[in-house]
Amino acid sequence: MPTPFATERQRAYIGVFDSGVGGLTVLRELYRQLPNESILYFGDTARLPYGTRSQAEILQFVREILTWMVQQGVKMAIMACNTSSALALEAVRREFKIPILGLILPGARAAVQQGSRIGVIATPATAASNAYRQAVQEVDETAEVWQVGCPEFVPLVEQNRISDPYTYQVAQEYLAPLLQQQIDTLVYGCTHYPHLAPVLRSLLPPSVKLVDPAVSVVAAAAQELELLGLRNIRLPLPTRFCVSGNPEQFAQVSVQWLGFTPTVEKINLPEVLSQIVS
Known about the structure:
CATH topology of the largest domain: Rossmann fold
Low-confidence stretches: none
Largest sheet: 6 strands, parallel
Distance between the termini: 40 Å
Number of strands: 10
Number of helices: 14
Order of helices and strands: HEHEHEHHEHEHHEHHEHEHEHEH
């Protein structure tokens, strides 16, 4: 017989955060794989893109977001952001008591199952961290990995410019060194990038397999919830969408991937945190 507390915890939100709309690719997977879970989604749109920030800045942002999410009572957090996963995951796992999942190890495992010549497109910070190469080679030391930093992709997705000829031109430049290495697998090393699938697919040979770490991190989340007895078996609460920047802009850009217009709250993290402290 489950205790009332266990039932309460099971019904709690899973916190999902990213710098912007990229994490919606993880949210869609949560809807697909874990339809009973309630989600609190936070997009740090006032401070995007994360991919050109320093490790100290990223760590500060992630601490602020997680502190706020814990305050909202989340039972688990998913970093729907590869840059945060690469630069802050280990540190915050030691600091917070809730389970925190990142994208990189699940993504690396999925990539190794697909091929051995692995290309990774990522933000400059993720590419420079070498996190994907290390994770892939931990799983399979014979696999070869090439990483390319793609600074222009996140702003193009956030500005809803996916069909622009310029986006195709930029994508061609980013993919060129990977195609030269005859990759057999391409990892989306940023949650914004699956939104660019039509562009990337048109430029890649059909034999190159695309790996979306969102699929694997949600499968890992399902396992963890099961293990901890935290799976929700009741109906979920409506998804709560929050941003640090402009709510209308986020709602407008995200509608095409969500299939509905979300109601979006604006959260000013420093203000919220100062209220908590005082």
